[in-house]
Amino acid sequence: MSDEPSARRGIPDATVARLPVYLRALGALAERGTATVSSEELASAAGVNSAKLRKDLSHLGSYGTRGVGYDVEYLVYQISRELGLTQDWPVVIVGIGNLGHALAGYAGFATRGFEVVALFDSDPAVVGQQIGPLTVLPLDALEAFTAEQPVAIGVVATPAGPAQAVCDRLVEVGVRSVLNFAPVVLQVPPGVDVRKVDLSTELQILAFHEQRKAVAEAMGLDDADDDGGAAAAAAQAISAVTS
Amino acid sequence: MSDEPSARRGIPDATVARLPVYLRALGALAERGTATVSSEELASAAGVNSAKLRKDLSHLGSYGTRGVGYDVEYLVYQISRELGLTQDWPVVIVGIGNLGHALAGYAGFATRGFEVVALFDSDPAVVGQQIGPLTVLPLDALEAFTAEQPVAIGVVATPAGPAQAVCDRLVEVGVRSVLNFAPVVLQVPPGVDVRKVDLSTELQILAFHEQRKAVAEAMGLDDADDDGGAAAAAAQAISAVTS
DNA sequence: TAGATTGTTAATCGATTAACAATC
DNA sequence: TAGATTGTTAATCGATTAACAATC
What we know:
The structure is a homodimer of 243-residue chains.
Chain A: H1 13-31, E1 36-37, H2 39-46, H3 50-58, E2 64-65, E3 69-71, H4 72-83, E4 89-94, H5 98-104, H6 107-110, E5 114-121, E6 130-131, E7 134-138, H7 142-148, E8 153-156, H8 160-172, E9 177-180, E10 193-196, H9 199-218, H10 231-242
Helix pairs in contact in A: 1-2, 1-4, 2-3, 9-10
The structure holds a DNA duplex (24 and 24 nucleotides).
């Protein structure tokens, strides 16, 4: 209940979001045979500031050695454990179009920690298709399937239209973690986590910065921020000139 | 240079990241024929707090009407303009495997603001494939292509191995915005923006919370945070019992 | 005018970072 | 012991939120 030195209580969200990045960087180091890494090296591989990395890791415990650094393998294990990757989470994918198909075959799932246990689609032309070791099941088999076998994570890879209804059904059968690829904001009850992967959103964020850069350049490098509202208009003008 | 009332200088990153979400919610409202929306309604559709929404929009300017709300169409235009979507950004996709193929055909690009102008792959078996209006070009044609036609955004959809080299080449030919789907942390020079879309990362973040929820439940609902390090171990134990 | 809702203020909260004492 | 590097402190910065005056 009190705040002991390195008590591990409530790891900040920002830290949790970076742990997978560290894990990835550590994996690459391990492959190259690196046994030990300093916070400086690991931070640079992960693209963050070393103070931030140390602060993040300190939330998990004291797994480094002063004067030496971190043991790569041991840190991989500790982060994996913290993220819950030392067990296998059963995953279902709903919507086996182009994207769902790509996801079903994606190596990311092969990553320790997850197992795709079923694929669902409502299109009779897709149902029955074999993808790797799995056969695409009709969406209406969802309830029967989950009655037999627990599912931790549901991936929604349908078009926008049916996404909310699919999500509702996943929640209904007990799924409390949803990864949403459909271009809609899913509404879920409290206790259910949704994360969204969205191509358009990412592109739009890049476009914003791209526009800023175009304006900054046109204005002579510095002061991109001091636009009093002119950035968009200026970018338009630039675009008009350059195309 | 000074801070006038609603001078638009440096929109916070957190706000920029949410503008696409608002845009999407507004699009859905527009489709349903809604002409006007209050911050309360729009916030709920976007899954955020209404104070946050108003604060975010206030960074763009004063586009609402007190006592009334926001004109949906006008707000769509203002956000689009701010994000730089009233012009078309040329996009290339490198790596036309399962995922790249899905991306090339993805409706997200059809969204106003982006145009896929070329697809590249280094596999001779893939080069020459026709995808929609485009033919997959050999990766080695990248330099010649960009010499002819400007490219704003590069999408890296290769496997992890070649991703950094591909990114380097994109940067070399002048691309300053990269959307990375490969499971690596790309290193880029200052002035280049990288955004990462990563299935594993998202799954791992969900797994962390899923684990917390499992533990919370086993401990009798409350106090999920007060684990002094026991969450992971407890989840393991739970998993062992329930499987 | 009365009711509704924005835009802004100010307080709070959480995240980042530099700096350095602890310690291998 | 001397050098290196962690883990933690404390200062700073940015983001969130409630509350409300401005105003349609």
